[in-house]
Amino acid sequence: MATDPLRAAIEGRHPLIYLHCAEEVRVLGLVRQLAAELAPGRPLTTWTCTRGLEPAPPSAPDTRDPVAAIQAVTADSAPGFYLFQDLVPFLDRPEVARALRDAHAVLMGRPGSALLMVSPVAEIPVALRQDVLLLELPLPDADEIAGLVRVLWSGYTSKVLPEEALGELILALKGLTLDEVSHVMHRTLATGRLSRDGMLAAVGAAKKAAVSGAGFLDYVPDLIDLERIGGLMSLKDWIARRAPLFNQRTVDSGLPVPKGLLLMGISGCGKSLCAKLIAHAWRVPLFRLDMNLIYADLYGNPQATFHKALRTIESVAPAVLWIDEIENGLGGGKGQGDAGAHILSAFLTWMQEKPPLVFVAATANRIEALPAEMIRKGRFDEVFFFDLPNDEERAAIFAVHIRHNRGDPATFDLARLVRDSHEWTAAEIEQMVIAARIDSERDGAPFGTEHILAHARRLVPLAKSMNEQIRFIRDWAWDRATPASANQQVQFD
Length: 493
Prior knowledge:
The protein is of the alpha/beta class. The protein has 4 domains: about 5-135, Rossmann fold (3-Layer(aba) Sandwich), CATH 3.40.50.300; about 140-210; about 225-385, 3-Layer(aba) Sandwich (Rossmann fold); about 390-460, Helicase, Ruva Protein, domain 3, CATH 1.10.8. Helices cover about 50% and strands about 10% of the residues.
């Protein structure tokens, strides 16, 4: 329950409580509900700088002044709860701080009473930190979201919202404020298009807006076409088998929830694409963390910025966090100094304690640059190795990209293309097909095999130009990683 931390604070007789939350209306409802349970028969008293205390105490002066309002609370001998909605900007005034310290002493001896203040920012002056308890009010839980969704749904349609659809929608909406949930639902329901995909797309857009202020986190649109990924059947099978487990039902039942994958291997073999595939297959939003911006000092201290990034991704869970080339950002290497070591330590701790519905998809080209504690069992569910595609996979990749470029794979000599593309990466195949498609348009000729072969004769593949590095990567992965492709062993020349 969202009120549990507040209830515990009141039962612990904390007389001054600071609620850090941007949802003032929601806080008002939660505090009113809790006050009715703990102080039945006595209404909740609220304060704003424009209206003063409501209900106003008898024979009290103008309580729009914060000092007068706090003193009126102190003079009220009956137990009760007082929610101050505009008090935080006045806390730096010495007379307000003095009035609060006096109220602290009086309310300590009045069980069942508390003066609460709410603000979207946590700014407690040093002089009051010993007296004021700071509480981070959690985002709406499933019950709060479900209640609001049902009310809004019934206001637009007489159709019954299936429980399964409701559960999936609630999971997608978790991480948004009630106001954001309301906006998403109104925007979606008003169109009359009540499809599952339409509503989930609207939720994804809302989560993109929720992290828009954090420039180091990028929302990655769900534009991936599953047919564009050829091969990698072992990894695809792993993703498909765990799709039914990445939800709140799994968490509630105590079953293990997928926590993360480390995708390592040869550059250009589909690691980044598969990070996107995970989010698409599990129908959750994908956010990319740009570690270069974390270290650039554009957003302040790197450690504090990284901590903010983790808190932000937690707030929009369920989600996939994509960390590209993790060895460069979290390798703790040269150029990062003490900040890199602290950030690495913070990340390792967070991986152990993070919320269950944040999945980490990390990619790496130079796995040897990662510290041993990063890749030990328990940090990630699995370490998958991406090798150069084999013959069968190259045929599938050629077919995918030919089709994507408006060609018919059946009219191409795939066997010859496979033979002439020995040890090409998936990225090299894609670029050759794209270049061939451009040539066919230039020549005004049908898009065919010869256009691709013309480029193939000029290509120097990565396997040749980076032969030593590839041999080293394969050697490292021999008994340390799981091949991403089915029935594929790490190859040696």
